[in-house]
Design a protein that fits this description.
Blueprint: E1 9-10, H1 12-22, E2 28-33, E3 39-45, H2 52-58, E4 66-69, H3 73-79
Parallel strand pairs: 1-3
Antiparallel strand pairs: 2-3, 2-4
């Protein structure tokens, strides 16, 4: 696993995207490290109403992504068995 530089920062729009998910204005946001590894950036911010299937289609198989998803109680039982969480 690559070591990140100590000066890794978070892009300004990452925080506002998180707040939009928290306020249910968007369904999810995917974050990634920039190509140079110096910044966390938004890879994809969902439009309101976009589904879990859209999220699955946005996740590359060979690169890590970090997702904040607005999962309500009804969705939890349906999707929890398929969640793959890596820390």
């Amino acid at each position: 696993m690559a070591t990140l530089p100590k000066e890794t920062t978070i892009a300004r729009d990452c925080d506002s995207a998180f707040v939009k998910v928290k306020e249910s204005k968007i369904e999810f946001v995917c974050y990634k490290f920039s190509d140079d590894g110096k910044q966390i950036v938004i890879d994809y911010a969902a439009e309101p109403g976009e589904s879990w299937k859209v999220l699955e289609s946005k996740l590359p198989k060979d690169e890590p992504r970090y997702v904040v998803y607005n999962l309500d109680k009804d969705d939890t039982a349906r999707y929890l068995p398929s969640l793959k969480i890596g820390l």
